[in-house]
Write a structure and sequence with these properties.
2 domains, 48% helix, Rossmann fold, four-stranded parallel sheet, 14 helices, Dehydroquinate synthase-like, alpha domain
């Protein structure tokens, strides 16, 4: 087991990464106010993984209740969030009950938001079961639901007490789910560590083949990158915004097509290509750099071109994004591979040209 620490003073927490961790209730018990949890999962994950988690909780003497949500980004809304509150209230969960999110990013985001709001805040633990959630959404305390006009527009910062990333969970993922997580893996390398860009070029096939050792290494270094960023900028006032590379374009794709039509990772992948092409258009990257990014995205089986929504529609949706400040689009671009920069003065016609070229 590898452990990465998110350093936030008295709210610091560990991320345990390894194989065979799901059934180890002894990892969870030290982080509970009392030995009672409410597990939130969905109807796809529950038949595959719930019993193993429950068996570990029983062995550790931890009481539990379960709340099973419908699966999918299309259900990341108020109505589904209320199902969590219904479950907590009907089983008389109080402030000492810890919520456990067992699932991917949608389950993690919604459980975290419910934990932030229920009785004005209760603790929660993340047990992410997809690559996307293990390397990204489970770390850092961002919780939210979607609104028809924008992704993740309603939420709160609420840090988990513990994250357990069991790479055995990834072996059962459909290939599309594994690929969608690789988008965030590529993103972290591009914004933070050029050496890891080379590592991905060498190990992409092993990751796609679910090599447990390579997956564990990838999850650990991705969590370390994100933990380092979160530790210095928890609420996204500066450096943490770099983690949104590809997301402003990508969120427009998700909202424009309807949530769930493209996966988050697929939308971010196409968004990263747009951001990379714009970086080159502004003179920050060479054509060879753009080719490397495009090659990585394509080798991961992700879309390198966005859907044809029209540049006007893209820009209208992007202007609803959380990164808009004082009416200006704040875009995360690359000044080199492994180094991100924020620009809020890119003329809209330049953005529109890149969108049209990349769709």
């Amino acid at each position: 087991m590898r452990t990465v620490n998110v350093a936030l003073g008295d709210r610091s927490y560990p991320i345990h990464v390894g194989a065979g961790l799901l059934g180890q209730g002894s990892l969870i018990k030290p982080y509970l106010k009392r030995p009672r949890v409410a597990i939130v999962t969905n109807d796809v994950v529950a038949p595959l993984m719930l019993e193993k988690l429950v068996a570990g909780l029983r062995d550790a003497g931890i009481a539990y209740s379960t709340i099973v949500l419908p699966d999918g980004e299309a259900h990341k809304d108020w109505q589904t969030l209320n199902l969590i509150f219904d479950g907590l209230l009907s089983t008389h969960c109080d402030r000492s009950t810890t919520l456990i999110a067992l699932g991917g990013g949608v389950v993690g985001d919604m459980t975290g938001f419910a934990a932030a709001a229920y009785q004005r805040g209760v603790p929660f633990i993340q047990i992410p079961t997809t690559l996307l959630s293990q390397v990204d959404s489970s770390v850092g305390g961002k919780t939210a639901i979607n609104h028809p006009l924008g992704k993740n527009m309603i939420g709160a910062f609420h840090q988990p007490r513990l994250v357990i990333a069991d790479v055995d969970c990834l072996v059962s993922l459909p290939p599309r789910e594994l690929r969608t997580g690789l988008a965030e893996v590529i993103k972290h390398a591009l914004i933070r560590d050029n050496a890891r860009v080379g590592w991905l070029e060498e190990n992409m096939e092993a990751l796609l083949g679910c090599d447990r050792e390579r997956l564990a290494e990838a999850v650990a270094w991705n969590c370390a990158i994100k933990a380092g960023v979160v530790a210095v900028d928890e609420t996204e006032q500066g450096e943490r915004a770099h983690l949104n590379f590809g997301h402003t374009f990508g969120h427009a794709i998700e909202a424009g097509l309807g949530y769930g039509e493209w996966s988050h990772g697929e939308a971010v992948a196409a968004g990263m290509i747009m951001a990379t092409e714009l970086s080159a258009w502004l003179g920050m990257l060479a054509a060879a750099d753009v080719a490397r990014v495009r090659s990585l995205v394509e080798r991961a089986g992700l879309p390198a071109n966005g859907p044809k929504l029209g540049s006007e529609r893209y820009i209208a949706l992007m202007q609803h994004d959380k990164k808009v400040a004082d009416g200006k689009l704040r875009l995360v671009l690359l000044q080199s591979l492994g180094s991100a920069v924020i620009r809020d003065s890119v003329p809209l016609p330049e953005i529109a040209k890149v969108i049209d070229d990349c769709c």
